[in-house]
Amino acid sequence: xxxxxxxxxxxxxxxxxxxxxxxxxxxxxxxxxxxxxxxxxxxxxxxxxxxxxxxxxxxxxxxxxxxxxxxxxxxxxxxxxxxxxxxxxxxxxxxxxxxxxxxxxxxxxxxxxxxxxxxxxxxxxxxxxxxxxxxxxxxxxxxxxxxxxxxxxxxxxxxxxxxxxxxxxxxxxxxxxxxxxxxxxxxxxxxxxxxxxxxxxxxxxxxxxxxxxxxxxxxxxxxxxxxxxxxxxxxxxxxxxxxxxxxxxxxxxxxxxxxxxxxxx
Amino acid sequence: xxxxxxxxxxxxxxxxxxxxxxxxxxxxxxxxxxxxxxxxxxxxxxxxxxxxxxxxxxxxxxxxxxx
Lengths: 265, 67
What we know:
Shape of chain B: flat
Number of strands of chain B: 0
Shape of chain A: flat
Oligomer: heterodimer
Number of domains of chain B: 1
Number of helices of chain A: 8
Helix content of chain A: over 70%
Order of helices and strands of chain A: HHHHHHHH
Radius of gyration of chain B: 16 Å
Number of strands of chain A: 0
Distance between the termini of chain B: 36 Å
Largest interface: A-B, 35 and 34 residues
Distance between the termini of chain A: 24 Å
Strand content of chain B: under 5%
Structural class of chain B: mainly alpha
Helix content of chain B: over 70%
């Protein structure tokens, strides 16, 4: 995988997670207290930075074959779970991820809890809400950056890509002070699911001792192949769902207002 | 302590295994078979892609059937 391939893969995957974290921080800041939410976010970013600093060199020291086997397995499991959800959403069987709806829910939940000061933090609930949101979504960012970076033997570049993704999304969130609902998050998730599945298959098989025909060039067949297969499954399921609804004499709506078009993700 | 450990284990399970444990089990099984076949003279690279072609539709079919 070239440097650009690594950068793009990590950037896209981390941007998706950053959008979700931004929604939680915005809800905490709007419903509670901006200073507490920002402090929570910075504290979580500090913990994540410590994790990268501690795990990065340790992972780099592992033998490549064993690393590829474990990382390939995890990426493949993650990728297939993402693809599964993306296909269910694209075919209308699962509600499309809606940042506006998530933001409203978080806002309502946060507004209903009484405020409590803790040390120099004016609102402890706002702090913990932002801290937990950024830490949990950030763990996935750290995992993706470390696994992709260690396999490509370039953790610094993967960390830069992850940092850029977080910075771009956070800046956009601060600029609009609203959930980033215009980001095509569901489509991005479909793409990231394909990437995780493709790289997981490639590295997992190599780690288990298989040799790909054409070496790295096999990815150029593997990734489009998985994309076509996933899109085909989504189309097939969408048609099946429409057919069943027509047979029952009514058009069954997709959960929430998700259009059953290739919105995916 | 017990509650925290349970919460951590639940988080770890959700983080790694996710909605369908069969996917994780299938991947681990697929890698084991790939390893075994790679020790022989038969090419093993095609096993994981073949597993995907089976595993993903089965998982989707089971998800739809539950709804």
